[in-house]
Amino acid sequence: MDPKARRGRPRSGEADARIIDAALELLLERGYDRFSVDEVAAKAEVAKTTLYRRWSTKDHLIVAVVARMQDEVPVEYSGDVRADLTRYLNAIAAGLHRMGQAGRPTASGDTSAGLVAEVAAAAARHADIGAAVHAMFVRRNALVLRLLEQAREHGEIGPGVEPEVLFDQLAGAIYYRLLITGRPIDAAYVDRLVAGALGGSAA
Amino acid sequence: MDPKARRGRPRSGEADARIIDAALELLLERGYDRFSVDEVAAKAEVAKTTLYRRWSTKDHLIVAVVARMQDEVPVEYSGDVRADLTRYLNAIAAGLHRMGQAGRPTASGDTSAGLVAEVAAAAARHADIGAAVHAMFVRRNALVLRLLEQAREHGEIGPGVEPEVLFDQLAGAIYYRLLITGRPIDAAYVDRLVAGALGGSAA
User: Fold this and answer.
1) Using the beta-carbon criterion (under 8 Å), do B157 and A116 form an inter-chain contact?
2) How much is the ipTM here?
3) Residue among A100, A137, A193 whose CB faces B181 most closely
4) What is the mean pLDDT of chain B?
5) Domains of chain B (ranges plus CATH)?
6) pLDDT value at position B98?
């Protein structure tokens, strides 16, 4: 055990924040495979037992780190839903790119899904990780669904539009490109996507 | 080496088909982790070297099996793009469900992404698997993009609609639910999705 870990007894919120900070930094530096919970405990100066009591596996801790990354992006209705969606989807794309680059040399040119795919695979392998990932997205996406409801109340989107279906189309397209087809996701694509989803395709 | 493998020299197309048949059956029965290339060689009665010369890793062979599953679903424009998309997306959902259940007891109630997530993770880990997965989707999705172009020529979808963006919204929503949010994908959802994408969301 790290000697410093025994010294104080920070309140749990403080320790949690320190753990997540350390975990985020190490995760982006190392990537999924070389990310180690023990190293996070050392860096955060908390006892390993404290860390494992809170997050029982590496994957649980990674989910918490991803949630923290999500929370860095504000979601607020500005009165212009097209601008809001464009900004938010570009932020998602940037976050996914950052996760995709985790543990890779800067400017490696590698555009693969990296960590994002590892988290999806862990969610598929272990029911408890799956539940944690799903809960994270329910919590986070609720903010965007609320934004879309406000846009609907303001008459920017149609009264019959289902916010969840609309957001699935938008976020889904981005994850699909990242995880499945490998097609590029840039600002021009986000513009085309938002225009397509808002405008509809029927003649 | 299996003695039968030495006996004849089937033309390579024949051997390939026998290998893929055997691999599909074993993959659905065993799931990703317990799927073994050596076992496929034995079941298909081909020499391991023949198999490895054609598909150098388990993941390459799995990509070929997935491509074969995709090819079981016809893609043809009927003159009613809404019906065509609904049918095709339900077929995708059924195929993904079948892959998700690979190696699991029947009716396990487990709705996780299983094999689908493993393939996405392998694609992210290894550049050559990523390239094979992307090529598979380029080839396959070209059929749907052609269908959407025909619908556009027939005036069923708007002249300014980009088939690729529209299909990303549709297929993307399904993969997003499967791999990320865990929300259900049933026929009612597919109907809402197709209606949302064709109808658009702007007021």
Assistant:
1) no
2) 0.90
3) A137
4) 89
5) 3-65 (1.10.10.60), 76-199 (1.10.357.10)
6) 86
